[in-house]
Request: fold
Amino acid sequence: MMTTKNDTARARRAVALRTISVGLILLAVLWVLYGDTLSTRLLSWLPGLSQKSLRVLFVGDTSFGENYHDKKFFESRGYDFFLKELDPLLYQSDLVIANLETPLTNLDRSFLAGKKRFIHWGDVQKTPKTLHDHNIRFVSLANNHTLDYGTVGLLQTLKALNKNDIAWFGAGVDELEASKPLRRSFTLEDYPFELVVVSGFAYSPRYDSAFHCYAKGDVGGVKMWTMRKAANQLLRIRQADNHAFIVAFPHWGQDCQFKAEGQTKLAHTLIDAGADLVIGHGSHMFQEIEQYRGRWIIYSLGNFAFNFPGSCQKFNVHPFSLTASLEVTRQEESLVLALKLYPILSDNLICHYQPRLVTSEELSRIKDILIGRSLEPAFLEKHVRTGEDKVGLFLALGI
Reply:
């Protein structure tokens, strides 16, 4: 049987039409799932395209706690269970950046066994897949658990994240790689916006000498932030790009405690060196907020989905954490930035490993705590307002 050029052309057109039809069906399904966030999320993933607004969500300490629980714990719930109540928050964001406080490894034993009290590990397949499925596509590794299984565990972590298309920063195979910040460029109705997120783990002599946590020279690890190293890193980033919006994302502080003096000094150093916003994590509860030289400091977000079986309430502190949404919109001839803090109930003894957004009564309590802990309560009372949108209740801070 002879095939003519016209037959071939008709066949190609038929294939093209089928491809377009499948694409339209897929687009319709995505629209049903994600609604009016679809266009901005697609545009945020495609460089060089213009969008109307941008939402970047920062969330705190994240670990599904495989080291704390047996198989039955996960089989009876499933990994999606831990993030289910937070999906409205996650899916309404264009980018979600988390502190991933666990290595992803299948190693049988840590070199820190018998030396360190809490040694974390996460499933190399289920953990990154769950994060990706719930729109968590960016993670900081600059914390005190990433090296719980040494550099071999770190390499497994990086491989698992890469396999699941999750970008990482704050750690690496050497000091140079660990120092690289997260950079993303956007165009908001033809107006450029450059976001730089830089992370580090505040220096601890114990984690340096006993746990060998920090990257040094050709040795892999997490980014070390002494006052000098943090300042130098921020200064270099600011000098290289004077127009970028720089978010410092440090890991610091004591478990279940409000901020310490060292955190204040380092936060001020980061801003003096060029940071526009400081969002910390590490204390497993939210800490104070402060404005310094016109720039906000969120000392600690606290936990996000962190399946530790204990509770901070035994230390007589609150059971809440924060998430921080940086929102950028184009208005007339400039960009307008705002910061919304969406609090969550994160204490596992209360939320039963399923953190959720807070109620109006809980939001009022959280605002009272923040104002009560502030050295400038009248300033916070004036500049922190409460609100509600389709995601949930929030505290709004002007930038």
Observations:
- The first helix runs from residue 5 to 34.
- The two ends are 72 Å apart (CA to CA).
- The domain at 47-398 is CATH 3.60.21.10 (Purple Acid Phosphatase; chain A, domain 2).
- Residues 36-40, 42-48 have pLDDT under 50 and may be disordered.
